[in-house]
Design a protein that fits this description.
heterodimer; A: alpha/beta; TIM Barrel; 2 domains; 13 helices; 11 strands; B: alpha+beta; Phosphorylase Kinase, domain 1; Transferase(Phosphotransferase), domain 1; 10 strands; about 20% strand
Chain lengths: ~400, ~325
């Protein structure tokens, strides 16, 4: 079971709780959400509490430097962070070397499991900035190669806009380019074009992302860590990801550059429960309460001690704090991923993931026939299915 | 450029230390002689015509044995390639690559011809091409042994950052006492080094090009995975007797199109006894995109070892 906690704002004791209940095998720390002093203490604590085999990574979130008045919180307190720069001033190879090195030197002082390189966000694999990305990646590799006595492996960040994944040929060419690199793996983050939660990539982009994961992991043996991932992570896992990471807020389950932009405000998120059988977080009210009137209620609810009270009472009357919702969500995600990971063969894993999607679509259809209306439509499942089919064609 | 016009007697005059000179054939643009000295019982002497006829004003016999190096931009491509080949052979000490012979790279003027002489180990055996022509089809184990030996050669070159770029049955010898040797490093290229080819030209042999080799815009990004593709073609051909993309009626353009776009027939359709391990390796070697092949020769070597072990178990 390889689900990591995606750390972020408002961590409370969520990480410790997932470690305690055995559902988290690692954590990806967000630099902007801890001061350097607090980060040091947090790393020490997590390494101790996580124990042997628990992975602690730090996302340097370097890409945020181009966002004017960005919500960078603590990032400016890190010495490696360059502050606001325009991309046009960010092309001098000496600067790229300096920034790459500084972020890794900082990480060398923390008890992290892997180095994670700093990176810019890529809008496309062939845009002008891809050269900056490649230069920074190569500088990170060079820095690591010079530290032959340092056993800690290097993972390269790959922060992508969804648009970059619409072009299959560009993905192929990028894979051709990066697969000879001597690194342990890649930390992949994809900014979704859709807003709101839950959002999904377009089927083509999802299929190409799965192929990217597969090409790097199964075909070339790299470790792939997928950040800001939600239930779609069952597909990432089936395609070969070593770990997926998910957090307590919707913004930690799907990545958006807008989360680094000045806040436009927004209401409090409505309570949701993650349904294993529907592969979706559904609204407690009115969705789950509507399901309660059907014979599919226990199936949708699933089996977990977190929801024991809901089996007995109307969910609208059950206290469902964000902390419990997160722990339940994480448990469901871990269970699903474990089920996929229990299969060795990639085709078997993909078949299993597809069966999960089909089962969920059937359950949605059955509920619809019983008059249950979902505000958050299950359209994402059909997109996942299409993305999966597209990926399987690409695999051939 | 035509072949050199030289007799064994003329070669003896040029190299008095030779005790035997016997013409055995030609390879590419070179004539090949089996020679011997009192110390080396057999080696191959290759003679290549560099310039013919020589400009009338030239009057020296030995053109490049002196201490002065010609300017880089006036060194004929053939000389530069031969130098590169000699340097690589001198560095590689594995049985899957030929060892250098006793005659070091020498340029001589004979009559109106300017000739280049080089020597390497004499390999007693046959080329894979001659075996394919004789309808010899390799077994599963033999195919994997061929793959293993070629991989060792490609791996040794890759460690020096060198690509062979011309892996084909004509350049693969089977030693009589067993084992395969990859020969003719004339087109070998150090990655990142200046190509010796004419601008716009693609070095290699068309039916053994990898898809990326056929794309002139990608010539700077090819790596050992390109050699692996050619290995896939060779092994496919050695097992089935049929080239996966080309036939003798196709034009070079048609062959390139097929290499880029056509999926070959499944090897087990042509050889029903083809083992799964062999098929899996060949299929992967023949993938159109480099990232879908094996990441590097080490990974390929591991896959071959595993497939051989599986065959031994059955």
């Amino acid at each position: 079971m390889s689900v990591y906690v995606q750390h972020g704002y408002g961590k409370s004791d969520y990480i410790e709780s997932t470690i305690a209940n055995g559902n988290a095998r690692g954590v990806i720390l967000s630099a902007r959400d801890e001061s350097p002093q607090a980060m040091r203490a947090l790393c020490d604590k997590l390494v101790e509490e996580g124990g042997r085999g628990f992975t602690v990574l730090l996302d340097p979130q370097f890409f945020a430097f181009v966002i004017p008045e960005g919500r960078i919180r603590n990032l400016s307190k890190y010495r490696y962070y360059p502050g606001l720069l325009s991309r046009s001033t960010f092309t001098d190879p000496a600067d790229l070397r300096r920034f790459s090195t500084a972020a890794l030197v900082y990480q060398s002082r923390l008890p992290l499991s892997r180095y994670v390189s700093p990176a810019i966000a890529l809008e496309g694999f062939n845009d002008a900035w891809s050269q900056v990305y490649l230069t920074m990646a190569r500088e990170s590799i060079r820095w690591k190669e010079a530290r032959s006595d340092d056993a800690r492996p290097l993972v390269l960040s790959l922060v992508l806009n969804e648009a970059a994944l619409m072009d299959a040929q560009a993905v192929d060419e990028f894979l051709d380019l990066i697969t000879p690199w001597q690194v342990a793996g890649f930390y992949i983050v994809v900014a979704c074009r859709q807003s709101g939660y839950p959002a999904t990539l377009e089927a083509t982009a999802l299929g190409n992302l799965l192929y990217l994961i597969y090409g790097l992991s199964i075909l070339n043996g790299f470790e792939i860590y997928c950040g800001y991932t939600d239930l779609v992570g069952i597909l990432h896992t089936a395609a070969g990801a070593k770990a997926i990471a998910s957090g307590w807020y919707g913004s930690l389950r799907q990545f958006a550059i807008t989360s680094f932009m000045p806040s436009l405000g927004g209401g409090r998120a409505r309570p949701r429960l993650t349904s294993r059988s529907l592969l979706n977080p559904i609204l407690i009210n009115p969705e789950l309460t509507s399901v309660r009137g059907t014979n599919l209620y226990s199936e949708v609810l699933g089996d977990s001690e977190y929801i024991a009270e809901m089996l007995r009472k109307n969910p609208a009357n059950v206290e469902w704090p964000a902390s419990r919702a997160f722990l339940h969500h994480f448990e469901v995600l871990s269970t699903l991923v474990t089920e996929i990971e229990s299969l060795e063969d990639t085709d078997d894993r993909l078949d299993r993931a597809e069966a999960m999607i089909d089962d969920a679509l059937s359950t949605y259809a059955a509920l619809r026939s019983k008059g249950v209306i979902f505000e958050s439509r299950p359209a994402n499942l059909q997109v996942w299915r299409n993305g999966l089919h597209y990926f399987r064609q690409r695999m051939k | 450029m035509p072949l050199a016009d030289i007799t064994p007697e003329e070669i003896r005059e040029c190299f008095p230390q030779l005790t035997e000179v016997e013409e055995v054939g030609s390879g590419g643009q070179r004539r090949v002689f089996r020679c011997a000295t009192s110390e080396v019982p057999a080696f191959a002497l290759k003679v290549q015509l560099i310039e013919s006829p020589l400009p009338a004003q030239s009057g020296v016999d030995a053109l490049s044995e002196g201490p002065e190096e010609p300017e880089q931009d006036v060194i004929p491509e053939a000389i530069a390639r031969a130098r590169r080949e000699s340097a690589i052979l001198a560095k590689c000490d594995i049985p899957q690559l030929a060892h250098p012979g006793p005659i070091s790279l020498t340029e001589l003027k004979i009559g109106t011809q300017r000739l280049l002489f080089s020597s390497e180990e004499w390999i007693d055996g046959h080329t894979l091409r001659s075996m394919i022509s004789a309808k010899v089809q390799l077994s599963n184990v033999e195919s994997l042994q061929l793959a293993r030996d070629l991989t060792s050669a490609v791996e040794a070159l890759d460690k020096m950052n060198i690509l062979h770029r011309d892996i084909k049955p004509e350049n693969i010898m089977h030693r009589k006492d067993g084992g395969w040797v990859l020969i003719d490093l004339g087109l070998a290229l150090e990655r990142g080094a200046t190509s010796l080819s004419q601008p716009g030209a693609i070095p290699g042999t068309t039916p053994y090009f990898s898809p990326e080799q056929t794309d002139i815009t990608r010539k700077h990004s090819i790596d050992s995975r390109s050699d692996m593709f050619a290995m896939g073609v060779v092994i496919y051909e050695a097992m089935s007797g049929i080239h996966p993309f080309a036939n003798r009626f196709m034009t070079p353009v048609q062959i390139v199109t097929a290499i880029r776009n056509t999926e070959p027939r499944a090897l087990d359709e042509l050889r029903p006894d083809c083992a799964l391990g062999v098929r899996t390796i060949v299929t992967r070697l023949l993938k159109k995109r480099p990232h879908a092949r094996f990441g590097n020769p080490n990974v390929l070597a591991a896959a071959i070892t595993k497939a051989l072990a599986a065959l031994e178990e059955t």
